[in-house]
Amino acid sequence: ILNVEQSPQSLHVQEGDSTNFTCSFPSSNFYALHWYRWETAKSPEALFVMTLNGDEKKKGRISATLNTKEGYSYLYIKGSQPEDSATYLCASPSGNTPLVFGKGTRLSVIA
Amino acid sequence: NAGVMQNPRHLVRRRGQEARLRCSPMKGHSHVYWYRQLPEEGLKFMVYLQKENIIDESGMPKERFSAEFPKEGPSILRIQQVVRGDSAAYFCASSPSGTSGYTFGSGTRLTVV
Asked: Cα(B9)–Cα(B30) distance, rounded to whole angstroms?
């Protein structure tokens, strides 16, 4: 069974700080890595889909990197704002199977 | 484009009753996935359907739970004879192919009293 791990479980940062968190996944039989942003009382919203080793994607102040050989991805947020407060999920399929999600990193940005 | 529509948003059932959760995928999406979120847990995969076919139901309990995605109409997740442990948020997602990113609905929060 594919196991996707995220750390830390939760994170509190001051407004303006930059932060990052980690997603670990099995490096064998890698297919793709997805990042989602999940605000309280809303539905998860897709951020990135990454497939190639060394991939780097960016959306505004949020970026992500992928290392498929060692089985990890980092999500970075530059200059955190209160509206960045959310749970950030990563997920990976095993081949053509449905996405397996990590438990998420809950980010709180304090004004 | 209305996105993925789930209804009802909240559902209260007494123990032993049936719960029916509906999911209409995004227009053009033929792949539907159901996930369950238990308190303090992440999203757990339940079942993956493509029009009229169950592709993968490995995450769905063998008893009391069933899912369908008919040719016409929404996908239905059905829970018979609900128990308190079924209380959770149930999320549906859809995608245009089995390898694309997912679009999620807002979820149905089931409470069994």
From this structure: 22
Which residues 58-97 in chain B show a CB within 8 A of chain A?
91, 93
Query: Given an 8 Å threshold on Cβ–Cβ distance, is A49 in contact with B101?
Result: yes
The string of pLDDT tens digits covering residues A32-58 is: 999 999 998 889 999 999 999 999 999
**How many Cα atoms sit within 13 Å of B93 on the Cβ side?**
24
Read off φ and ψ for residue A83, nearest 5 degrees: -70, -10
Contact B91 A43 (CB under 8 A): yes
With CB atoms and an 8 Å threshold, state whether B35 touches A96: no
Determine the Cα–Cα distance for residues A66 and A15; give it in Å rounded to an integer.
26
pLDDT single digits (tens) A57-81: 999 999 999 999 999 999 999 999 9
Question: How many CB atoms lie under 10 A from the CB of residue A25?
Answer: 24
B61: Cβ contacts below 8 Å, ≥ 6 apart: none
Is B102 within 8 Å of A46 when comparing Cβ atoms? Answer: yes
Taking the Cβ of residue B104 and every Cβ of chain A, the question of whether any pair is shorter than 8 Å is answered with yes
For A96, which of B91, B98, B102 is closest by C-beta distance?
B98
How far apart CA B48 and CA B31 sit, in angstroms, is: 7
Task: Measure CB to CB from residue A43 to each of B41, B44, B105 and give the nearest one.
Answer: B105
